[in-house]
Structures are given as C-alpha cells and as structure tokens.
Amino acid sequence: MVSCIPRSLPFLLFMMILAPVAMAQAEPLAENTDVVQEPQSAPSKNVTSPKVVSPEIQAMIDQAVQRAVQNALATQTENLEAKPSEAPTVPESDTKQTMKYVESNVVSFAGREGFRWQDESGNFLLNPYFLLQTRFQMKFVDDEGLNLADPDNVTDLGFGVPNAILGMAGKAFGKLSFNLAINSACAGKACLLNQMFLEGNVADEFRIRVGKFKTPMHWISQTRIGQSMAPYAPSSLTTRVNIPFDINTVNPIIKTGFDVGVMLHGLVADQFQYQVGIFNGEGIGVNMPTSNLSDDNDVPALMYALRLAYMPFGAVALQEGGPRVDQSLKMLIAASASYNVEANAETSNDTRAGFEFVLAKDGWYWGTEFYLLHMDFMERQRNAPSYLFWGAYTSLAYCFDIGLEPFLRVDSFDRNSSKEDGMLLMPGVGLGWYIYQQNVKLQTMYQYLAKMGHEDDLSANDDDNGMAEHIFMMQLQFSL
Predict the structure, then answer these.
(1) What are the tens digits of pLDDT across the range 233-245?
(2) Is the dihedral of CA 268, 274, 277, 281 positive or negative?
(3) Under a CB-based contact definition with an 8 Å cutoff, are residues 162 and 154 in contact?
(4) Most Cβ neighbours (<10 Å): which of 19, 73, 187, 414?
C-alpha cells in the first residue's frame, strides 16, 4: 500500500501560523504612522487594502511547511521499509492449495512452513525434509531347552540407527509432483533409495504414480515412517514364515513394504479411496527388473496389488495415534489383496489379503489388522501342498495434552501355517513422549513372546526359532 501526503497539509500549517499574526494586525496600533485615518465628516468608503506579510513571518511559514513535509516523507519511508519485513498473511486455503499433491511417506508436511522454495504462482515448489532415528535395544532369546553350557541368550544389544532419511518433495507445471528420499542408514545399495516417484495429478479422483514407493497393503505400511506409534512393526508382519522343507531360505514375510512399479489411485468424495498397482514384487532391496513370464500362468511374473478404503468422516491422516490437530471422529475401513507371481526365487505364487480398521477421536486411537498369506508352489517344485499363514494385531492408545501417549499392542502369528497346531502370541506395552509434536519424540516399548497350542515342546521351539522371547527398545526421533 502506498501512502501520500495530504494536499491540504501545507495550507493548514499556513493558516495555523498566520492566524495569530492576522489577529495582531487587526488591533489598532497607536504609533502606526502608516495608517491614514479619514475625517469623520467625510463619507466612509468600503475599500479593503491587501495585507502585506513581513519577510520574517513569511520565512517562519516556509520553514514550518518544509519541516512538516520532511516529517511526512520520513514517516512514509519508514512504513515502506517496514512492510517487507512483516510476514505476509496467507489464507489457510491458499496454503493447502499450494501444498496440494505434495506428499511424503516419511513425514507430514502439515504445519511445516519452513524450508520451502516456490515461485510466485505456486506451480513450482520444493520442500526438503529430514528424519533421524537412533535407538537402544536388547533382545533375549530362549535357548529352546538345549541346555547349552554357554548359551548367548542376549542378542542384538547396543545402539543403532534404523533410519537417517534425507528427502525432498515438490511439484512442477501445476499437475506434476515428485518425491525423492535417501536412507543413509540402509546397508544395501538398493535400499539406500528409500523412495522415488513421479506423479501425474489429473484430479483428486485420478492420479498416477510411477517409481519406488509403498505398495497398497496394510495400514501400518501406509502410515508414514516418522508417524508410527511403536518403534518397530508387528513381528507377525516382519518375521519369515516356516515351511517344513529345505527351501526355508526363500520363505517370505507377509508385509510387502516398498517396491518399484506403477499405481493408479484417487480419493472420491473425500471418503472412498482406491489404489491399483503393478510392481516388481522384489521389495525394497531391488531397483532393477529381474522377472520373466510365468510358466504356470503365462503372465508377467510381477506383483499385482489392490486396496480399497472407506472413510465415512473424511480422509484419515496417515499416522498412528500421536497429537492430532483435528480431534473430530475419524474412521477407516479397508481391504487389500495382492498376487505375487513366481515370487521367492521362482518357488511359489503368493497371494496376500488384509483387512484394516482404524478409529480415532479426542486423543484416542484404536487400530487393528488381520492378514494372511497363501503360498502355492509352482509345478517345477513338484510340491503339491499349498500353505496358508495368517496374522493379526490390535493397538490401543491415548495421547494426553502434555504429549505422553501410553499404548498397548497385542500381536498374534500362525507362523507354522494352518496345517500345524499352535500359534505365537506377542503382547507389548509402550510409551511415547512427543516432546515437540511430531518433530521430536521418544518411544519405548517392551514385547513378550508366548507359545500356545502346539503339540509338544519340540514343535513349539521350532515355531519360534530365531525369534526373541523378550524385546526392549528405546528410540529417539527427530524430524524436520
């Protein structure tokens, strides 16, 4: 806004200074010889002679007007210099529109206004982000009744850095968005690239994503890495299944995680979400194509995945518990399925399916999932039986206003398949401390492993082979 000096300012100053002078001159002066009085007998004439201002008074007027003009100009300059330093007030709707389609599977951009570059129109935008997790952990492994002389029951003791992710997300040309994240804590060359994708955003209802990103399965996978409630995922999703053959080296896990592929997705009416994709099926550790045509099905040996979600009260934030800006009721009901053709070094065709339910309101969070894995061995393996494995977990938490969030998680796993009796039960308790919202938080958790329903101790020990009976973990996270 440009301010200007009122045109009437000099005139007002002139009148203020001149008024006393004029009043003084209007009084009769006894010794004023310049005034000629006419005789009383002569008829009076209505003649007004012009008032002449002395040079001294005129100089005073000029100086006053000059000072007033200088003061007004100085005030105007100060206002113009102060305006750029003030933070512009951007409406919330404009901010949301600018950040629309800019996403990250690592941290949320909600409320993060710093470290952002963009042009005036908002079509070109770059938003860097950072996530660091460091932890202390200890695992206690049962000796499985072997009565060894020097058993190493305590394993994986010490400190670690599970994630050190540096990434950037943004958009260009209005409808194109991108994301790149490098995890320097990953040991493998391929998993160093945590994610990289380009996305064409035709509309909210139709978007296409190409690159390396999360596969559309499991709520705990859809949740951002930096916004998980517990410091580690349920063991039923991350532990390899047991099959009674020598090919246990290729037995899979139920969780799919990151993969390279293409996906169509969208959100309809802010309630219905769909995700349909085709992926390599190799997971986060492979960035190159390695598959061929299926011998059994005559289709490309890839992974085909689908996820459908219904959110009756609006879109649900991709986070487990934690402090929420929106305390209104949120609910998610979702189902997913995938078919990985000739997975696990061409040993089996793996079918996965899952069901998700999430409920959050006023600091409360409840999430539960049920999932299964069906392994159908290929004809070349000459192994007729197929195997079905299943797992489930449920989490309950409440986040207090001071930032403390106690939570309970119960995890179950039928690791030896439905053909064998027995299952594993893993209850755990934890506490999260959100020191500064989602930017700095401390997480701690303890989990216990119980075996139930097995025919004998030998089958029970085989079922939990390689798994820790006690797990304790503390994790400090910083994100920006």
Answers:
(1) 999 999 999 887 6
(2) positive
(3) no
(4) 414
Question: What amino acid is encoded at 307 in this protein?
Answer: R
Residues 6+ apart with CB under 8 A from 469: 140, 141, 142, 448, 449
Say how many C-beta atoms besides its own lie within 10 A of residue 334's C-beta: 23
User: What's 334-349 look like in SS3?
Assistant: EEEEEEEEEHHHHCEE
DSSP 83: H
* Eight-class DSSP state of 226: G
Verdict on whether the full-model pTM lies above 0.70: yes
Lowest mean pLDDT among 30-44, 282-296, 350-364: 30-44
Q: How many CB atoms lie within 10 A of CB 270?
A: 11
For the stretch 64-120, pLDDT in tens is 777 877 777 776 666 555 554 444 455 555 667 777 888 888 998 876 666 778 777
Please give the backbone phi and psi of residue 426, each rounded to the nearest 5 degrees, phi first. -130, 85
pLDDT at 408 over 50: yes
C-alpha 299 chain-centroid distance: 37
The pLDDT of residue 69 is 75
**pLDDT surpassing 70 at residue 149:** no
Where does residue 46 fall: left (phi above 0), alpha (psi -120 to 50 degrees), or beta otherwise?
Answer: beta
What is the amino acid identity at position 308? L
Share of the chain above pLDDT 90, in %: 53
Nearby residues of 365 by Cβ (< 8 Å), 6 or more positions away = 229, 320, 321, 322, 358, 359, 395, 396, 397, 398, 399, 407
Q: DSSP letter string over 410-428?
A: EEEEETT-TTSS-EEEEEE
Q: Which of 58, 65, 46, 75 is nearest to 21 (CA)?
A: 58
Burial of 204 from C-beta contacts in 10 A (0-12 / 13-18 / 19+):
middle
Instruction: Note the pLDDT tens digit of each residue in 8-26.
Output: 444 545 555 555 545 444 4
Q: Which two tokens stand for residue 380?
A: 């070349």
Among residues 410, 405, 303, which one has the least CA distance to residue 360? 405
Residue 117 zone, left/alpha/beta (φ > 0; ψ -120 to 50; rest): beta
Hey, how many other C-beta atoms are within 10 angstroms of the C-beta on 446? 14
What is the three-class DSSP state of 201?
Answer: strand
Q: How far apart, in whole angstroms, are the C-alpha atoms of residue 328 and residue 136?
A: 35
Mean pLDDT for all residues in the chain = 83
